[in-house]
Specification:
With 75 residues, this protein is mostly helical. It is built from four helices and no strands.
């Protein structure tokens, strides 16, 4: 039973890494264009997520200044 769990965990890790485009074997075998295609969508999502977080934090700036404890949740 332990072996089956290890195999499943390994396959899940491999699939997640493949979706993110970070498997060492794939990087060594594929061209720069293929690697970029795998990573650029995630970078764009992260960029818009950061912009959205900055907008939300700026909207609640006065509230964050009044209640210092809330600033820990803005990171």
């Amino acid at each position: 039973m332990q072996d089956l769990g290890d195999i499943i965990e390994e396959e899940v890790d491999k699939d997640i890494s493949l979706m993110a485009g970070v498997i060492d074997q794939e990087i060594a075998e594929d061209s720069l264009l293929k690697i970029s295609r795998a990573r650029v969508p995630w970078l764009i999502v992260a960029l818009f997520g950061g912009i959205l977080a900055a907008v939300v934090i700026s909207r609640f700036r006065l509230c964050l200044e009044k209640i210092i404890g809330l600033s820990f949740f803005s990171l």
